[in-house]
Design goal:
The complex is a heterodimer of chains A (112) and B (113).
Chain A lengths: L3 E3 L3 E4 L5 E7 L5 E8 L3 E8 L6 E2 L6 E7 L2 E6 L8 E8 L7 E2 L3 E5 L1
Chain B lengths: L2 E4 L4 E4 L4 E3 L1 E4 L5 E7 L5 E7 L5 E4 L2 E4 L9 E3 L8 E8 L7 E3 L3 E6 L1
Parallel strand pairs in B: 2-12
Antiparallel strand pairs in B: 1-4, 3-9, 5-6, 5-10, 7-8, 8-9, 10-11, 10-12
Classes of the chains: A mainly beta (112), B mainly beta (113).
Chain lengths: 112, 113
């Protein structure tokens, strides 16, 4: 089974901090994604990557950046955390466009 | 742009009741359609999918049929269980290039004994 692992289930940070959310997948997938999930808004795509060192903006990239130095790892970076970035963050990966995405269990991030 | 609309929840049912969660989509081409389920405290899991018109996806007693004429992909189950309580997401993906998933806002299902 594909395993997508997010480094933290719960995280509390302060406004202005630089925050790193890590995601690792074990199936050699080319494509990786970061979403945020908010009540009433569903899942919104922040960034995605279709290869090492490649990245593409999703629907809501403002305030975020990403890093993909190795194929298995995709990091989401909050450059200067703000309270409106309090949310559930979900990482996903997939191999080919006709295959389903596999999701991690999410990181619930609170910015105080 | 592409979009997915699904009925707002929560949907509250008694065990063994019939379930329908409506989903309609807007897309410029012919997408693949998906239902994902999120159990409490977990990430999303693929429930079922359909890749072309008139396809029926099914899994764990759930079914959905890709209806091009009504641009719909409604989720149904004949007899729900308490363990089906979760949030259900309808999604689409265009079958070209580096496409991504577009999700609906999710529908919470609560099943009581």
């Amino acid at each position: 089974d594909v395993k997508v692992t997010q480094s933290s289930r719960y995280l509390v940070k302060r406004t202005g901090e630089k925050v790193f959310l890590e995601c690792v997948q074990d199936m050699d997938h080319e494509n990786m994604f970061w979403y945020r999930q908010d009540p009433g808004l569903g899942l919104r795509l922040i960034y995605f990557s279709y290869d090492v060192k490649m990245k593409e903006k999703g629907d809501i990239p403002e305030g975020y950046s990403v890093s993909r130095e190795k194929k298995e790892r995709f990091s989401l970076i909050l450059e200067s955390a703000s309270t409106n970035q309090t949310s559930m963050y979900l990482c996903a990966s997939w191999a080919l466009s006709n295959q389903p995405q596999h999701f991690g269990d999410g990181t619930r991030l609170s910015i105080l | 742009g592409d979009s997915v609309t699904q009925m707002e929840g929560p949907v509250t049912l008694s065990e063994e009741a019939f379930l329908t969660i409506n989903c309609t989509y807007t897309a410029t081409g012919y997408p693949s359609l998906f239902w994902y389920v999120q159990y409490p405290g977990e990430g999303l899991q693929l429930l079922l999918k359909a890749t072309k018109a008139d396809d029926k996806g099914s899994n764990k007693g759930f079914e959905a049929t890709y209806r091009k004429e009504t641009t719909s992909f409604h989720l149904e189950k004949g007899s729900v269980q308490v363990s089906d309580s979760a949030v259900y997401f309808c999604a689409l993906r265009m079958n070209s290039g580096y496409s991504t998933l577009t999700f609906g806002k999710g529908t919470m299902l609560l099943v009581s004994p």
